[in-house]
Amino acid sequence: TAANLSRLFDGSNVDDLHSHTFGSASILLTNPDIVHTFSVAASGLTGSQIVYLSGSNSVSLAGSNNMTTARIIGIASGSTSVTYSSGSIAKIYTIYGDIFNGFSGLMPGNVYYLSSTLGAITPTPPTGGGKTVVQIGIAKSPTELVFQPLVIVKM
Q1: What's the pTM value of the predicted model, to 2 decimals?
Q2: What is the DSSP string of 82-128?
Q3: How does pLDDT run across 54-112, given as a tens digit for each residue?
Q4: What percent of the chain has pLDDT over 70?
Q5: Is 89 exposed, middle or buried (0-12, 13-18, 19+ CB in 10 A)?
Q6: How many CB atoms lie within 10 A of CB 101?
Q7: Residue 6 three-state SS
Q8: Residue 35 main-chain phi, psi, to 5 deg
């Protein structure tokens, strides 16, 4: 309905790096069902890092080292220059199929996986005992990733 569209697309600047393109119009999202806010756990994080739900309404950096940290929920809003300190509130995007801008050095068409380095992605699936292979998405450009999380296997 028009009222719901107005709620979804009010044009405010929630995040200058996150937009949707419909035809020729680029629209910023503000829907609280899409842009979730969480308290940042003790380690802190930066924009474009992958996170998991680590406590009641709190997120921590995700990693492929074990099943707990591999249960990702989304990507932190902003480029890598955006810092969220411990205890601060971070915007986390969780939409499957959404395009996230803020990365660097991606190879278009390559699949990216959750890395054993907390919060990071890698074009190489992790190997070795205890690692969980989680696809994060596919690179659309050197700076954009299409978010398509899939748990592939636990090694």
Answers
A1: 0.77
A2: -EE-TTSEEEEE--TT-EEE---S--TT-EEEE-SSTT-EESS---S
A3: 998 999 999 999 999 999 999 998 888 889 999 999 999 888 888 888 889 999 999 99
A4: 77
A5: exposed
A6: 17
A7: helix
A8: -100, 100
